[in-house]
């Protein structure tokens, strides 16, 4: 029975216990962040002035206590997770799509256009990453959308170079020649032949982008350039936590621990995807 | 080889030029000026200040003026720290940032490569296992969590090392350098391990073993060069990561480096200071990418003509 | 000089031991050229790797391989290193990947003589490159492998192998990766140099043309076992084993340009045949009997087939 390469890869992925366990863990965290707040009658921005800096008490209204504004820590961490995870996945998706299209066009076109497009990538690589993000988010007027756009804009470069290399080798293959002889336009060839054939690569590298985007967001929020109070994100929660870690480690431990778990599982999921789609033996 | 170096330097120069131009104009497009925020000043005073800093001129003329200064090594005045020039500010922070960065990359490369080699040569041994666990930690726990935790444990609880600042000589450097190096140690050891294992399987290694030169010489003369090529290639991008990391580390450990100024300058629209730091970091990044390419070409003769 | 007795090679694959070479015996005298012939997958290259101690990590060799009285298979790695490259040398199949891409060709050659002073080793390396007819050898020694053509690289490999004037040369399909026109040149060169230095050669090949051109004796391998061992001329004139006969019939001959049709041996070699009882060639043999499938025939007077010797 002939099985499609995708199903074979899926079967290989499912055999990788670590990757499957990490996928489940990640799904659990996502569910917690998005569904958890529904079970609380208040939001993470509401202050409970009767319970300021409440300690951990699993059977009270605030299971993980409150911060010094009386805001529920667990709900804040879950809401922060919504922000971080959304930016992470949408950001990786956007960066992957932009990079794929850019790289596919450059690699397929070749010649002068390719050189010009890659020179632009080279220049952008020359920008120190933080600086580019900060400049861009300033240019776009600050705020969450600007932050998102800036992160995406700095992370599409690597997928673009990877896809370009792939597109270059694809452009020389017979079936592209056949498509051209059959009268397909260049746009159609890029969209119907080049892009689909780079999808596996993009999926594998895209899975590596997710943790990178999440890390960028939380790191910028930590520095005070990203998501700003009172809105919560893991980055600014960790920043607030470090300020009080001497007296109350839980403010750092909860968001920090969740962020570490997410990065941990994404790392193994990416490894699993790579091994599944690229069965060349890796150790 | 010489023409390769020249070509690489030439393209680096163009990248730097593009970097300068782009940053300059992006900065000017940013809404809000340095003196328009939170300050109630009369229009005349504002005009006077802007004239003093040539902010009333057309943008292209400001650009030419900036380039003129740059050629003479003058990065202009800081708009926020009134009595200092950008050269002063960068000059005072640079030695600290350089020291931090130098040691961090050295520790990352030395520790990462030796751990990776140990893992590859004794696969599934205790060192390999420990390095793997350590590597996962280095990737999962970002330095802005690790840094504060290290301060809490080693400095506040155990009192072994200073919490922050740069007043205790080498002791104040230990934590910042180690924490900054850690993610790269993790990555470099993984990279070294897998590429050395791959390299040891190449057919030319069999040829070398057939010469009867002994396992150490096979490793040193034949396997290591190929195995370290991807590691060297990674050192370029690692520098970029290190710059990002150093901004965090300088903030967390309150070190008087350049990175500390950057966020502040960006938020306060201190154009010349942001430009200066961008140039400095960008220049470093470009320089390191060139050095990486040259080192790789030196190690792999096949790259010299490409 | 080399005497192999009952050589076995096993590989651990997914926790099981799979036999690739089963009880191969052969001997080579000084200056003799022995061909080891068989289809791909017959385990012939593994014989050479076993002798050189170069089996893959999951491989293990058994039996005996006496080289000038010492058993190569049980020797300590350090003692083996005293022989490798000096008394026994090897030429590998693919000259494109068998040379170190990061090192000058001259350095790679000179390394064989690492016990000599550097300048002297280099000088001898250049002289050896001249002997394998590399033009402008002194300058080319300073070049890297990627600057050489495939044929030139294999000349370099031959130079490297013969540099220390070994007593035994192991050659693993030395011409398979090369153009047909280059193949003959390389073989002649190999034969010439070996004759000059009285070096014995064990050459592994699937190409009977190579055997005809170079070898004194031939050992025919199938499924990891020896089928027949004979003088090269005798084998070409009157192959005895059904497999040898099939092999010869499937080889085009110069003398008969209008031969009716090239024949093929039906079927394909079975994988891991050496692990199973019975004659490995039984499934493809025209003379097969029930006994062939159950009992493994022994090599008697140069042939392992009861149906022929009966």
Secondary-structure map:
The complex is a heterotrimer of chains A (283), B (306) and C (310).
Chain A: H1 5-15, H2 17-35, H3 73-109, H4 111-126, H5 129-139, H6 143-155, H7 157-171, H8 174-181, H9 186-223, H10 234-243, H11 250-277
Chain B: H1 2-29, H2 43-52, H3 59-71, H4 86-121, H5 126-140, H6 143-157, H7 171-200, H8 203-210, H9 215-252, H10 259-267, H11 271-299
Helix pairs in contact in B: 1-11, 4-5, 4-7, 4-9, 4-11, 5-7, 6-7, 6-9, 7-9, 8-9, 9-10, 9-11, 10-11
Chain C: E1 2-13, E2 16-28, E3 33-37, H1 44-52, E4 59-67, E5 70-71, H2 77-83, E6 88-91, H3 105-110, H4 118-131, H5 137-140, H6 150-162, E7 168-172, H7 180-197, E8 200-205, H8 208-214, E9 217-222, E10 225-231, H9 232-237, H10 242-249, H11 290-294, H12 306-309
Parallel strand pairs in C: 3-8, 3-9, 6-7, 7-8
Antiparallel strand pairs in C: 1-2, 1-4, 4-5, 9-10
Helix pairs in contact in C: 4-6, 6-7
Descriptive report:
Chain A: Its main location: membrane. Chain A: It is found in: Cell inner membrane; Cell membrane. Chain A: InterPro entries: BP-dependent_transpt_permease, MetI-like, MetI-like_sf, OppC_N. The complex is a heterotrimer of chains A (about 280), B (about 300) and C (about 300). Chain A is an all-alpha fold and about 280 residues long. In chain A, helix 9 packs antiparallel against helix 11. Chain A contains eleven helices and no strands. Helix content of chain B is about 75%, strand content about 0%. Chain B contains eleven helices and no strands. In chain B, about 40% of the residues are buried. Chain C has about 300 residues and is an alpha/beta fold. Helix content of chain C is about 35%, strand content about 20%. In chain C, strand 9 and strand 10 form a beta hairpin. The chains are: A mainly alpha (about 280), B mainly alpha (about 300), C alpha/beta (about 300). Chains in contact: A-B, B-C.
């Amino acid at each position: 029975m002939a099985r499609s390469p995708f199903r074979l890869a899926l079967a290989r992925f499912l055999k990788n216990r670590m990757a499957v366990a990490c996928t489940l863990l990640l799904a659990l965290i996502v569910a917690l962040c998005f569904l958890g707040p529904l079970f609380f009658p208040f939001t993470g921005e509401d202050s409970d002035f009767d319970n300021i800096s409440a300690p951990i008490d699993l059977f009270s209204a605030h299971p993980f206590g409150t911060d010094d504004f009386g805001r529920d820590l667990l709900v804040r961490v879950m809401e922060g997770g919504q922000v971080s995870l959304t930016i992470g996945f949408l950001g990786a998706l956007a960066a992957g799509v932009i990079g794929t299209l850019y790289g596919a066009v450059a690699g397929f076109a070749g010649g002068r256009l390719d050189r010009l497009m890659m020179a632009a990538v080279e220049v952008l690589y020359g920008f120190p990453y933080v600086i580019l993000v900060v400049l861009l988010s300033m240019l776009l007027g600050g705020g969450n959308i600007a932050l998102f756009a800036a992160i995406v804009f700095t992370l599409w470069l690597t997928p673009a170079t990877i896809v370009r290399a792939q597109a270059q080798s694809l452009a020389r293959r017979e079936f592209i020649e056949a498509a051209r002889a059959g009268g397909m336009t260049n746009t159609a060839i890029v969209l119907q032949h080049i892009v689909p054939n780079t999808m596996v690569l993009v999926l594998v590298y895209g899975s590596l982008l997710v943790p990178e985007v999440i890390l960028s967001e939380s790191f910028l929020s930590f520095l005070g350039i990203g998501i700003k109070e009172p809105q919560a994100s893991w980055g600014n929660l960790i920043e607030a936590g470090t300020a009080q870690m001497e007296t109350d480690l839980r403010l750092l431990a909860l968001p920090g621990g969740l962020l570490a778990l997410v990065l941990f599982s994404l790392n193994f999921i990416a490894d699993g995807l790579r091994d599944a789609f690229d069965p060349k033996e890796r150790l | 080889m010489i023409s390769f170096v020249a070509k690489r330097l030439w393209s680096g120069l163009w990248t730097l030029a593009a970097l300068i131009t782009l940053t300059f104009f992006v900065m000017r497009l940013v809404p809000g000026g340095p003196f328009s925020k939170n300050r109630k000043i009369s229009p005349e005073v504002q005009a006077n200040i802007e004239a003093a800093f040539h902010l009333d001129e057309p943008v292209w003329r400001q650009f030419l003026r900036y380039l003129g200064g740059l050629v003479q090594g003058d990065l202009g005045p800081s708009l926020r720290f009134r009595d200092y020039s950008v050269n002063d500010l960068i000059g005072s922070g640079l030695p600290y940032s350089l020291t931090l960065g130098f040691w961090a990359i050295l520790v990352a490369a030395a520790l990462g490569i030796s751990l990776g080699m140990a893992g590859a040569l004794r696969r599934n041994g205790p060192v390999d296992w420990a390095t793997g666990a350590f590597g996962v930690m280095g990737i999962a726990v970002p330095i802005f969590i690790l840094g504060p935790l290290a301060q809490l444990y080693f400095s506040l609880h155990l009192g072994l090392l200073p919490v922050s600042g740069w007043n205790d000589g080498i002791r104040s450097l230990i934590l910042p350098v180690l924490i900054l190096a850690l993610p790269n140690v993790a990555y470099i050891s993984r990279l070294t391990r897998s590429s050395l294992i791959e390299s040891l399987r190449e057919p030319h290694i069999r040829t070398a073993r057939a010469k009867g030169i002994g396992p150490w010489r096979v490793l040193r003369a034949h396997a290591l060069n190929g195995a370290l090529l991807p590691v060297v290639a990674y050192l370029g991008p690692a520098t970029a990561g290190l710059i990002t990391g150093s901004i965090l580390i300088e903030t967390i450990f309150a070190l008087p480096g350049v990175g500390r100024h950057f966020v502040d300058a960006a938020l306060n629209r201190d154009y010349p200071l942001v430009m200066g730091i961008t140039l400095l970091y960008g220049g470093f990044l470009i320089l390191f990418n060139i050095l990486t390419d040259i080192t790789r070409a030196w190690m792999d003769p096949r790259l010299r003509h490409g | 000089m080399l005497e192999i007795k009952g050589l076995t090679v096993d590989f651990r694959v997914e926790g099981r031991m799979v036999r690739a070479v089963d009880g191969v015996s052969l001997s080579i005298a000084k200056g003799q050229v022995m061909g080891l012939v068989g289809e791909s997958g017959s385990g012939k290259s593994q014989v050479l790797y076993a002798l050189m101690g170069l089996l893959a990590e999951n491989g293990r060799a058994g039996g005996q391989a006496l080289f000038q009285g010492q058993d190569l298979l049980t020797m300590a790695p350090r003692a083996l290193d005293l022989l490798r490259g000096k008394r026994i040398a090897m030429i590998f199949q693919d000259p494109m990947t068998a040379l170190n891409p990061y090192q000058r060709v001259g350095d790679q050659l000179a390394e064989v003589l690492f016990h000599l002073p550097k300048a002297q080793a280099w000088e001898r390396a250049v002289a050896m490159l001249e002997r394998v007819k590399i033009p402008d050898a002194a300058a080319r020694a300073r070049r890297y492998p990627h600057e050489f053509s495939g044929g030139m690289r294999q000349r370099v490999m031959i130079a490297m192998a013969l540099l220390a004037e070994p007593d035994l040369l192991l050659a693993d399909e030395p011409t398979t990766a090369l153009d047909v026109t280059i193949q003959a040149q390389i073989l002649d060169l190999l034969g010439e140099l070996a004759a000059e230095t009285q070096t014995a050669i064990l050459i592994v090949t699937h190409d009977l043309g190579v055997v005809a051109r170079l070898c004194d004796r031939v050992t025919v391998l199938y499924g990891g076992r020896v089928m027949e061992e004979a003088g090269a001329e005798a084998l070409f004139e009157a192959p005895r084993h059904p497999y040898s006969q099939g092999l010869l019939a499937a080889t085009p001959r110069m003398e008969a340009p209008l031969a009716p049709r090239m024949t093929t041996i039906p079927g394909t070699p079975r994988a891991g045949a050496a692990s199973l009882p019975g004659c490995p060639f039984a499934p493809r043999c025209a003379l097969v009997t029930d006994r062939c499938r159950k009992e493994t025939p022994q090599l008697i007077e140069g042939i392992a087939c009861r149906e022929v010797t009966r």
